[in-house]
Automatic annotation (TrEMBL):
Keywords: Membrane, Transmembrane, Transmembrane helix. It comes from the Bacteria. The chain crosses the membrane at residues 6-26, 38-58, 70-87, 94-115, 127-144. This is SRPBCC family protein.
Length: 337
């Protein structure tokens, strides 16, 4: 019976921490914060700290320190993230982004709670855990008064192609349809980002409009403003929001939304030998969150992976075309002889 009673305390501890996190999710998703509450520091940092403190507070004092500071909060965070996915309140990419923050800060919250309540009477422990639980909600109105900072980021990828610049240029101004097998597997597919499909061009030269399409109705309108044949192609990027279904992206990772946007793309062709070309693709993005440095690690990875795969498709196509051209030239020479 004593063992069952003790186990019940563990369940209560996890349930109490989970309740705080779910209440925070409900409050910060409220329209009071104009849809941006879930990216506030009070939610991303203070709510998981409160989760850790509350879970530790209700965990039996006989539990090991590792359970009180690590495993208890870890289980609670896992349940919270699982419920967010189960009830479709967050998409997979959002869960992946916030999970490291929640794991780390819940641990910090539990450690700080133990530090502040060490050898203190139960009444003081109750006051302390109440402060942890209430602080995110009390500070949220103050944080909401501060403007969200903007950050411009550049992501660059490079590939060496065994083909002359003339061949490479023809493969970048327009990108014929890409099959899934052409791209190969990638983590970004598994977390829900659509694959690139093709890029068309209305006409060559400055002012030409590329339509870069991705799976699930995602399209970007790219207006060419730098046209230097066999040297550089650069364009502004605007998402075609009319074609993108609202279910394709979560609000917090929507391209062209309040928090993230892709602004420009540039191809540069650099001669690397008689029949070699170094192709550089770089893009510029805007991030508008309170955790730009952290969120940028994720957006940089996703953009880099998209660009890397596109460059690999272009490389294979250019090298195939160069080999065919060389074979045809050799065949013509033999017939001429």
């Amino acid at each position: 019976m004593a063992s069952e009673h003790n186990n019940l305390h563990y369940v209560i501890a996890v349930a109490a921490g989970l309740f705080v996190a779910l209440l925070g999710r409900l409050v910060f998703a409220n329209s009071t914060f104009n849809g941006g509450g879930l990216l506030m520091l009070c939610f991303l940092l203070l709510i998981p700290m409160a989760l850790g403190a509350v879970t530790t507070h209700f965990t039996p004092a006989t539990a090991s320190k590792s359970w009180r500071t690590v495993w208890g909060p870890f289980v609670t965070v896992m349940l919270f993230l699982f419920m967010a996915l189960l009830f479709h309140s967050e998409c997979m990419i959002c869960v992946l982004i916030i999970s490291p923050l929640f794991f780390i800060t819940s641990y910090i919250g539990s450690v700080l709670y133990l530090l502040f309540t060490d050898d203190k009477p139960n009444k003081d422990k109750t006051y302390t855990v109440a402060v942890f639980a209430l602080l995110p909600f009390l500070l949220a109105p103050l944080e909401s008064q501060f403007a969200t900072p903007n950050s411009l980021r550049r992501v660059e990828n490079t590939v060496l192609i065994q083909a002359p610049a003339s061949v490479v240029w023809q493969q970048i101004v327009r990108v014929p349809p890409i099959q899934a097998q052409d791209l190969g597997p990638s983590l970004i597919d598994k977390i829900g980002f659509p694959r690139p499909v093709e890029a068309t061009l209305t006409h060559e030269g400055v002012g030409g409009v590329r339509h870069a399409t991705f799976e699930r109705g995602v399209e970007f309108i790219e207006t060419v403003d730098v046209w230097e044949p066999q040297r550089r192609l650069s364009f502004s990027i605007v998402p075609n929001t009319a074609t993108i279904p609202p279910t394709t992206f979560d609000e917090h990772v929507t391209v062209g939304g309040r928090f993230f946007d892709v602004l420009r793309g540039t191809y540069e062709l650099i001669p690397a030998g008689p029949v070699q070309t170094r192709l550089v693709l770089y893009s510029q993005q805007r991030l508008s969150t309170r955790i730009n440095a952290y969120a940028g690690l994720w957006t940089d990875y996703v953009m880099s992976e998209i660009q890397r795969r596109i460059l690999e498709v272009i490389r294979r196509r250019c090298e195939d075309e160069a080999r065919k051209a060389a074979a045809n030239s050799l065949s013509y020479q033999k017939h001429a002889i």
